[in-house]
Specification:
- Chain B: This is ABC transporter permease.
- Chain B: Belongs to the binding-protein-dependent transport system permease family.
- Chain B: It holds the Pfam family BPD_transp_1_N.
- The complex is a heterodimer of chains A (546) and B (311).
- In chain A, helix 9 runs antiparallel to helix 11 and helix 15 packs antiparallel against helix 16.
- Chain A is built from 16 helices and 21 strands.
- In chain A, helix 12 links the parallel strand 14 and strand 15.
- Helix content of chain A is 32%, strand content 20%.
- By secondary structure, chain B is mainly α.
- Chain B has a domain of 177 residues: MetI-like fold.
- Helices cover 75% and strands 0% of the residues of chain B.
- In chain B, helix 5 packs across helix 7, helix 7 packs antiparallel against helix 10 and helix 10 packs antiparallel against helix 12.
- The two termini of chain B are 17 Å apart.
- Classes of the chains: A alpha+beta (546), B mainly alpha (311).
């Protein structure tokens, strides 16, 4: 009996000792995690949440905002989006543009990688060609399609040698574009256009998989630790050319994927920032934060919209589409449902690109016009009453936020147009499949700009079979205007062409815009000068604690 | 015994093969693929990607190759996390989930058994009622609510523990408590009722009449026999703690394996889905086997082998 009791006791002890051993093991790497109270006087240690593990910190493979958030602090392209939101000289100290605006000659400044290697024009050529090379499986290589020959080389039809990027010498990079691209200097700040240290990459193809000697950077911060799915630690880089402008000593980027926890950690002083653009705030906390005056809201270049399938009845009729687009009270939806201070959208392109789109093409909540359009549409389709319309299904991907919006819109359409609307939700990947296959009637989608130019929103609807159209709509006049804009070298004339194209789009209404996205966040009161661009990206280069 | 274990291992292999096969085909039947995204890829690029990952091969080739890979314990690269292989994800994430689970099981068993014994010994007294109120609360409050509750009071209000993350011992307490609360309550109730049953047995009366102290009776005679149902519960408990840690890991921002178990599915990250499923399946099959063996050791009345020799 005693022996058995001993074995029982022993097994409990064993479990206990394993547990204690494990805990002490955890203590070893506990230092560094207590930089929580970043509110203290002069400590320049920033703690932010980036939600999830960045899928890749290789500039050529990154294709998501989390990876972009890290890369923007550690790497630097030819240009960098400055505090004012416009591209500024960065790795390129100057550039010349040919008269037809298709050849850019960049002069690379004297700068170093974090291991002391000089940054050369060759690093840019190598990085861009690496991404374009189909063998490297870069899913964002199409961001480089503005460069002559890039698309052909990427799809395997052309050769990498014909791509229009060439290192003339160590410090001179010549880029030939397929068309004049007025926003090209903005693109060169984007992460697919970042360079990498070609010497290191040649020696170690897996240089970007972990922090360490091979993860060389040329930006304001250097990555010193990358604990996958846990945290990333950045330290001020000594080799950065503009290091005097950098005031933060460290940035700790933690990966907590729960908005409530994020806010709790912020309230507890463990984070200096909670919410967009790096993290997220719990939706139900927004009204309270707003009342306390802590919530900061800024519009960003993104549109939340409902797409219409223009290939099936009743949405093959433009008047019916307009009726549905008009019969929404967007402001009421924003005040009561989304509660994030979004702007009602009565246009496709966000006001950060076309400022007059704050007004839009038609008034919000215009029920009279909606009813008129409905009458006209019904007549054209040969129905006498809205109740005769085919059953209408509104689709969205499974999410509480989208569901609440869909329910509100369903109610508005039923009340104001007298139509029967059913809701349908699908898991994200399933949903994308159905939308891409035009297997829907009305479907929600969001579009966030990659660069601050209207073409980014318009070109998706150029061709009915284009990958991001999903509405079955196309218009030769719209296509013609976009084609003209691609070769127009005068910025104002080009902007006007794009606006004319948008007017055609809004008149056909293949999508009903609902709101323009905003970023909502709370931040440590002593934290200053975090630069948030018009696209809603954060840069900590100039940030400091007071 | 060896024969019994050998037979069980064979069954485990068959179960594992069934799980792998079912997961493989269900996964491929689900619409979408690892490259599905809001901004659609040009078709040439997608074809190129499919060819690179072998997704353009006929299903039987992919399936066969996959089975071979499992045999070699090489689950391949993650589609989503380009800097890591599935083996990396498992070897980095599992220790965290394992520690959390172990701590939770330890807390659940230690506190649960203690509460149960107190309740049984003080049957129908205030100690009994208090313990059982705690138990009912533990069973009825879901772990994610318990988690927020613990975070709010113990971390934000009173500042005893950090709100979240995994940086040392203090960080493990709240998630382990949240994860342990339900099984702890269940074990408390289980222990209480089996203790009450045992205490009413004749041999306890015999022990009493022999003049043994009540402490000795409890420790020597009652607890040991009352533990059987708790040991039985350890199998399903291990399973539920391992697979249920996802929510807790998410709320507390822990870099465990639980998150991959769920998010890989919405990412259609085929290799991660398969790798994590195979890994968890093996873990569960082994833990069930261990519980069965332990059961036989603790209660000699249950014979694992040789019971039906005439078969």
């Amino acid at each position: 009996m005693n022996k058995k009791r001993f074995s029982f006791l022993f097994s409990i002890l064993l479990v206990l000792s394993m547990f204690l051993a494990a805990c002490s093991g955890g203590d070893d790497n506990a230092d560094g995690g207590d930089s929580g109270d970043g509110g203290s006087d002069v400590e320049q240690n920033l703690s932010v949440n980036i939600n999830t593990e960045p899928p890749s910190l290789h500039p050529g493979l990154a294709k998501d905002s989390t990876s972009g958030t890290v890369l923007r602090q550690t790497m630097e392209g030819l240009t960098r989006i400055g505090k004012e939101g416009t591209p500024e000289e960065a790795m390129a100290e100057s550039w010349e543009v040919s008269d037809d605006q298709t050849v850019y000659t960049f002069k690379i400044r004297e700068a170093q990688w974090s291991n002391g290697d000089p940054v050369t024009a060759n690093d840019f050529e190598a990085a861009w060609k690496w991404a374009i090379d189909p063998a490297n499986q870069s899913e964002y290589a199409y961001q480089l399609n503005y460069i002559a020959g890039a698309e052909a080389a990427n799809t395997g039809e052309g050769s990498l040698d014909d791509v229009g990027v060439k290192a003339i010498d160590e410090k001179t990079l010549e880029v030939t574009l397929a068309n004049p691209t007025p926003f090209f200097l903005e693109l060169t700040a984007f992460y697919t256009y970042l360079p990498f240290n070609s010497k290191v990459a040649e020696a170690n193809a897996e240089w970007a998989n972990d922090a360490g000697d091979d993860y060389t950077t040329n930006g304001p911060f250097h990555m010193t630790e990358w604990a996958h799915s846990d945290k990333i630690v950045l330290e001020k880089s000594d080799t950065y050319w503009d290091k005097d402008a950098v005031k933060l000593d460290t940035i700790e980027m933690i990966m907590v994927n729960d908005p409530n926890t994020e806010l709790s950690m912020f309230d507890n002083g463990e984070l200096d920032w909670a919410g967009a653009p790096t993290g997220a705030l719990p939706l139900d906390a927004l009204p309270a934060l707003k009342d306390e005056g802590r919530l900061i809201t800024e519009p960003i270049a993104g549109t939340y919209l409902y797409k219409f399938n223009t290939t099936v009845e009743p949405f093959n009729n433009a008047n019916i589409r307009k009726a549905f687009a008009h019969a929404m009270n967007r402001q009421e939806l924003i005040d009561n449902v989304t509660q994030g201070e979004q702007l009602p959208a009565m246009a496709l392109v966000p006001p950060t690109m076309f400022p007059e789109n704050e007004e839009g093409y038609f008034p919000d909540n215009d029920m009279e016009a909606a009813k008129e359009y409905l009458e006209k549409g019904l007549e054209e389709l040969g129905y006498s009453d809205a109740s005769e319309l085919p059953a209408i299904t509104l689709s969205y991907n499974t999410s509480e936020g989208h569901q609440k919006i869909a329910q509100a819109i369903q109610d508005m359409w039923t009340q104001n147009l007298g139509v029967e609307v059913t809701l349908n939700n699908q898991e994200w990947a399933v949903y994308l499949d159905s939308v891409h296959a035009l297997d829907y009637q009305v479907a929600r989608m969001g579009w966030l700009g990659d660069f601050n130019d209207g073409i980014n929103f318009l070109e998706a609807y150029r061709d009915a079979d284009g990958g991001n159209n999903d509405t079955g709509w196309e218009d030769p006049e719209f296509q013609e205007l976009l084609a003209q804009s691609a070769t127009e070298t005068d910025a104002d004339a080009r902007q006007q062409l794009l606006k004319d194209a948008e007017a055609i789009f809004m008149d056909a209404m293949p999508v009903a815009p609902i709101y323009f996205y905003t970023n909502n966040w709370v931040q440590n009161e002593n934290l200053k000068d975090v630069a948030i661009s018009g696209l809603g990206d954060a840069q900590f280069k100039w940030a400091y604690f007071e | 015994m060896a024969k019994y274990i050998g037979k069980r291992l064979l069954y485990m292999l068959i179960s594992l093969w069934l799980i792998v096969t079912a997961t493989f085909f269900f996964m491929r039947m689900a619409p979408g693929n690892p490259f599905t995204s809001e901004k659609q890829l040009p078709p040439e690029i997608e074809a190129n990607l499919n060819a690179h990952y072998g997704l353009d091969q006929p299903w039987y080739v992919q399936y066969g190759e996959y089975l071979l890979r499992i045999l070699k314990w090489d689950f391949g690269p993650s589609f989503k996390y380009k800097s890591q292989t599935v083996n990396d994800l498992i070897s980095e994430g599992f220790p965290v989930s394992f520690l959390l689970g172990l701590e939770a099981i330890f807390l659940a068993v230690a506190i649960g058994v203690l509460l149960g014994i107190i309740a049984a010994l003080k049957h129908n007294k205030w100690q009994d009622y208090t313990a059982m109120i705690v138990a009912v609360l533990g069973i009825s409050v879901p772990s994610f609510i318990m988690a927020s509750f613990l975070q709010y009071f113990l971390a934000i209000k009173w500042g005893i523990f950090p709100v979240a993350r995994w940086e040392g011992f203090m960080y493990t307490v709240l998630p382990a408590l949240a994860l342990a609360s339900t099984p702890m309550a269940f074990i408390a109730r289980l222990t209480r009722s089996s203790m009450l049953e045992v205490l009413a047995n004749d041999y306890i009366k015999t022990a009493k009449s022999k003049g043994l102290s009540s402490g000795a009776i409890t420790v020597k005679h009652a607890i040991r026999n009352a533990m059987l149902p708790v040991v039985t519960y350890m199998g399903p408990l291990t399973a539920s703690i391992l697979t249920g840690s996802f929510v807790i890991e998410r709320i507390f921002g822990l870099p465990g394996l639980g998150a991959h178990f769920v998010t890989s599915i919405s990412n259609r990250d085929y290799t991660v889905i398969m790798g994590v499923t195979v890994f968890y399946s093996i873990l569960l099959l082994v833990s069930i086997l261990l519980v069965d063996i332990a059961y036989g050791i603790i209660d000699p009345r249950i014979k694992l082998a040789g019971g039906k020799k005439g078969e």
